[in-house]
Amino acid sequence: MAFLFGLLLALAALALFLPLWERLESALSRATAAVTAPGKGGRRPVWHPEGVEVLLREAGYERLTPLTFYAICAAGAVGGALLGNLIAPGVVVVLLAGAVGGVLFPFNLMTGRAERRARERRQQLAEAIETMRGLMKVGYGLERALEFLANEGPPLMRPAMRRAVAALRTGGLRAALEELRGQLASYDGDRLALSLAAAAAYGGRNTGDVLDNLARAVRDDLLVRQEAEAEMARQVLAARIIGGMPIVVLAAMFRFSSDYAAVYREPLGQSVLAAVFACIVLGYILMRRAMQLPKEGRLVVDLAMEGEA
Fold first, then answer.
1. Which domain holds residue 184?
2. How many domains does the chain contain in total?
3. Could you report the per-residue pLDDT of 126-166, keeping only the tens digit for each?
4. Residue 136 and residue 133: Cα distance in Å, rounded?
């Protein structure tokens, strides 16, 4: 039984690594670049306090500080260690694996929440652009359209629109568009600011058509990404099943067949477990990295030039 379990663990690790073999080098190079040059690209690694702060903001937990989040991770480590000790009493490797899983669990939850919130923001941005287009076509000016969206627009867009209205009243159109770009902080937000600046610079008669085309482009991009994410979600589920299967078998063995699991209480057996757990975790992380969609960049827009043209 012990030999069978070891064979199952090895097969699970192999199944995780085979799909990643060709992408392993590039994924490792990206991970190395993230560690050696954390400031490059303007974003720290996710475990860095600044990276945690960005992750919490993207997930919608602005009031949660990085220190509090680290405390939650520490509590997760304690809970995971207790669970590991419950599954395999006295097995240090299982206890440590449970602690590591407890630390990573809050990060996984926040990452999933941030991804869902990003999709919602893109959907609501498209709705806001369509609403702005309709308002401006019936005679609303930009300020009145922004005021309407600040009060009645999609919930995730209201704070950005409120700040844009305040900047418009105090600093003019360029300040409002810069504020809007900073609040939205996305490729679509840059396109919206550029479209409004161009419409203001070259005449506002076609502003509604410009916004109509922009809303359609955002919708089309969103549909493409949703289809790709749906396909990748199935692959992620398969990776979780493959990675979780040996853990379930391990828990069953330690709880119901302690005699067969005795070999994994020895130093050599625990070393094997540590190596296999490391391979499973690393394989899962690399698989998630390989299946991530490329993040959209930002447009370099000189709104002052557009406004003065």
1. 124-221
2. 1
3. 888 888 888 888 878 888 888 999 999 899 899 999 999 99
4. 5
